[in-house]
Amino acid sequence: MAKKPGYTSCPSRPECAGLNGNSEQMHIEHMETPAHGEFTIGRHAIMTYRKAGDGHIVVNHTRVAREARGQGLAGKLYRAMVEYARSNGLQVTPTCSYVVKMFERFPEDRDLLKG
Questions:
Q1: How many distinct structural domains can be found in the chain?
Q2: pLDDT digits over 41-81, tens only?
Q3: Is residue 38 part of a domain?
Q4: Is the pLDDT of residue 2 over 70?
């Protein structure tokens, strides 16, 4: 399968394990353009952000399809976003209520929050 331009694949990490244990059904992809980006797990889940200047992203939306809820997909997208922000030296402003709650739940990630 050919990759879409602008997309990168999630390497072999625990958070890339499959839906219901099937690794062929779940694969985190990251797409970015100069203005925005998204993390997706097939058609099951998406987390979007916009770029807000040098070194800053605003995470504005997370959605998981009804049939895929309760499997931790949103959490896996959150982890992928945190890893991306850390590895690229980015600060994060969450406007998505899910991401706000995740930063509250994981104080070790709060260093990424834009002051």
A1: 1
A2: 999 999 999 999 889 999 999 999 999 999 999 999 999 99
A3: yes
A4: no
Structural domain of 91: 7-109
Checking DSSP bridges between strand 91-94 and strand 56-64, what pairing results, if any?
parallel
Task: Give the type of residue at 49.
Answer: Y
Q: Which of 41, 22, 23 is nearest to 31 (CA)?
A: 41
pLDDT, greater one: 87 or 5: 87
> Are 24 and 17 within 8 A, CB to CB?
no
What token pair was written down for 107? 């104080």
Report yes or no on 18 lying in a domain.
yes
Please state the pTM of the whole predicted model: 0.80
Contacts of 46 (CB under 8 A, 6+ apart): 38, 39, 40, 61, 62, 63, 77
Sequence-ordered alpha helix ranges (H) in 2-96: 73-87
97 vs 75: CA distance, rounded Å: 13
